[in-house]
Amino acid sequence: MRIRFSSPTFAAGLLCTALAVSLSAHAQTPYKVLDHWKLADSGGWDYLLVDSAAHRVYITRGDHVDAVDTNDGKLLGTIGGLHGTHGVALNPDGKVGYISDGGGNAVVVFDRSNFSTVATIPAGTNPDCIIYEPSTNTVWAFNGRSHDITVIDAASQKVIATIPVPGKPEFAAADGKGNVYDNIEDKSEIIRIDARLHQVTATWPAGCDSPSGLAMDTAGNRLFPVCDGKKMSVIDAGSGKVLANPEIGDGPDAAGWSAKQKLAFASCGEGVLSVVDASTYKTIETLPTKRGARTMAYDPVTDRVYLVTAEFGPRPAATTENPRPRAPMVPGSFEIIVVGR
After folding, report:
1. pLDDT tens digits, one per residue of 287-307
2. pTM of the full predicted structure?
3. Where are the beta strands (DSSP E) in 154-292?
4. Which residue from 264, 260, 261, 273 is spatially nearest to 246, judged by alpha carbons?
5. Which domains are seen in the chain, by residue range?
6. Which residue from 100, 93, 98, 124 is spatially nearest to 109, judged by alpha carbons?
7. Residues 97, 90 contacting (CB under 8 angstroms)
8. Which distant-in-sequence residues (6+ apart) come within 8 Å of 333 by Cβ?
């Protein structure tokens, strides 16, 4: 049967409805594993960070940091000579990056064009998470053992403040308006810090146990810490009120946020990626990844998630010197898992 439109207005309305249905269907398309990329170099891992503009993802690997092309998974370069890396932050100038070298108690500045070391700046004991704070042009290193934050002026590459915190700092986030938020893992708390005054201005319950990963919806002023007990919290970043506790996978260590899709992610060590709808606070997908894939980075341009893991051999027997030995990684088994739609 041929449909005749009685008016241009009706036709336009029908077209808009069809477009809305199409966009809605796309938004509900589930994520899936698109690829597995192997890296031959040895070493453990911690945080990942995507540089969307340069089409690369940085992965901390113990005594070095790998930069990988997100187009094809090829290794672009390595920042070496480090001691125990945890995180990477990037200056928006596109020229330099910053590495928290926990084993060296330092922040290492590197040239993003050739991966050479530019400067080494002393920090506190075991700097872990590291972020760039845009409103003050500063770099913040969160020191896991000395329970403080080293604040570095990005222009002079000098330490300008050391801020004590009430416990072990984990992942952090900045809202771009002068507030920095950080998980205090051993206290199950979140703190808010004034980036200009270098003072803690609020301390709130995290709403779940041992928060590690932290993502932020800056437009909606919401925080998404991920915790033990298979829980994510959703927290109002203005009041500290816990808005929801969606269920996620077990053993999360990182979180992500998609401003366009309005989704929060949790990468979980049991081998799943949990996807939470931020409008309903419901977990809408539990995607199988691979056991151990508990850290992640999200690329907002391509709507892709990058996770890493490896195969492990038998765990050695405990000794007096090493009561909790780690299972050795199988050489050549380290991989990047690419998730998208």
Report:
1. 999 999 999 999 999 999 999
2. 0.90
3. 158-164, 169-174, 179-184, 189-194, 199-205, 214-217, 222-227, 231-232, 234-236, 242-244, 252-258, 263-268, 272-277, 282-288
4. 264
5. 32-42+215-341 (2.130.10.10), 81-205 (2.130.10.10)
6. 98
7. yes
8. 38, 310, 311
Nearest CA to 246 among 284, 216, 219? Answer: 284
Residue 313, amino acid = G
The CA distance from 83 to 80, in Å, is 9
Least Cα distance to 90 among 79, 104, 74, 80 occurs for 79
Place of tokens 């709130």: 204
SS3 for 27? Answer: helix
CA distance 112 to 288: 33
Number of residues that make up the chain: 341
Of 340, 341, 334, nearest in space to 62 by CA: 334
- Among residues 178, 252, 243, 271, the alpha carbon closest in space to that of 214 is found at 252
How far, in Å, are 7, 269, 313 from residue 86 at the CA level?
62, 17, 23
Q: Which residues contact 34 (CB under 8 A, 6 or more apart)?
A: 304, 338, 339, 340
170-213 tens-digit pLDDT: 999 999 999 999 999 999 999 999 999 999 999 999 999 999 99
